[in-house]
């Protein structure tokens, strides 16, 4: 199918973008890898597309205070994937090869994936696991939203219809931290049937100090839990199986039942937590 008719504007300043969004039924266009299929299937019919790629402020990709990585709304996923600066946030580098295909990542944006908020997408899970900060601009000014509060449901976020997501800020890895990321999909590049992102921090003696785990493809949004005590359990597989029964609540479909996704989550959680722990201990060895 073809998209329904729409007007197209390409402002050069963020204030002009906000003015266009305030004027009525408009949608932001950055990479278009999520929006264009929605239009083609006529699941959305905005009157105006507001292309933000000419806004210089949204092209920012830089290291900021404390080594955190700030990514502007128009920065391509492929740029982030290949940049040396991304090494400061290892979990992004682990997740990025799973995001669609290389050709899609050359157009798709990191912030666009967060704003789209597909519950089976990889980058929202990374943002939730690392407790990234998402900056939103709108009629009431700018505000910074923790990723744990930003994702409100399937394709639903804390950004309103007249807002634009300006950037995301990922905290840099700290000494003694290790990371894990894994997913199961029908084919490489497909959305995950189930996936996990993990971060584990250890003390100087190698003992677990803190662990966080985020599941995706298992609910209507990324689900994050403090799993410090889970990782300390002598039978980690049994502990993650119990955790799966709590966090996996997505309905079954043609590709996998709820029970199947719980089994996938349990296996992935065990594997990636163990990997993250080994990597963290290597950091302090």
From TrEMBL:
The keyword Flavoprotein applies. Pfam families: CO_deh_flav_C, FAD_binding_5. Residues 1-175 form the FAD-binding PCMH-type domain. InterPro entries: CO_DH_flav_C (IPR005107), CO_DH_flav_C_dom_sf (IPR036683), Diverse_Substr_Oxidored (IPR051312), FAD-bd_PCMH (IPR016166), FAD-bd_PCMH-like_sf (IPR036318), FAD-bd_PCMH_sub1 (IPR016167), FAD-bd_PCMH_sub2 (IPR016169), Mopterin_DH_FAD-bd (IPR002346). PROSITE patterns: FAD_PCMH (PS51387). SMART domains: CO_deh_flav_C. Keywords: FAD, Flavoprotein, Oxidoreductase. It comes from the Bacteria. This is Xanthine dehydrogenase family protein subunit M. It comes from Pseudonocardia zijingensis.
């Amino acid at each position: 199918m073809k998209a329904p008719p729409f007007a197209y504007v390409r402002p050069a300043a963020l204030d002009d973008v906000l003015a266009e969004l305030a004027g009525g039924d408009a949608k932001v266009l950055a990479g278009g890898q999520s929006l264009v299929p929605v239009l083609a299937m006529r699941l959305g019919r905005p009157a105006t597309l507001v292309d933000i790629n000419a806004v210089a402020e949204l092209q920012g990709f830089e290291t900021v205070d404390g080594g955190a990585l700030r990514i502007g709304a128009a920065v391509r996923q492929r740029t982030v994937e290949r940049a040396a600066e991304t090494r400061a946030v290892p979990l992004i580098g682990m997740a990025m090869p799973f995001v669609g295909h290389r050709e899609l990542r050359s157009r798709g944006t990191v912030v666009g994936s967060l704003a789209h908020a597909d519950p089976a997408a990889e980058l929202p899970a990374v943002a939730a696991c690392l407790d990234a900060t998402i900056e939103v601009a709108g009629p009431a000014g700018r505000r910074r939203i923790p990723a744990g509060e930003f994702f409100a449901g399937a394709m639903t976020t804390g950004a309103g219809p007249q807002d634009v997501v300006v950037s995301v800020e990922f905290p840099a890895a700290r000494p003694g931290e290790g990371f894990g990321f894994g997913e199961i999909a029908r084919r490489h590049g497909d959305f995950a049937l189930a996936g996990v992102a993990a971060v584990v921090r250890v003390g100087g003696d190698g003992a677990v100090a803190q662990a966080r785990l985020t599941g995706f493809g298992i609910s209507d949004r990324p689900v994050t839990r403090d799993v410090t005590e889970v990782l300390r359990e002598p039978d980690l597989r049994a502990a993650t199986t119990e955790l799966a029964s709590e966090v996996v609540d997505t309905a079954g479909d043609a590709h996998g039942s709820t029970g199947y996704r719980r089994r996938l989550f349990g296996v992935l959680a065990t594997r990636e937590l163990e990997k993250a722990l080994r990597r963290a201990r290597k950091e302090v060895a």
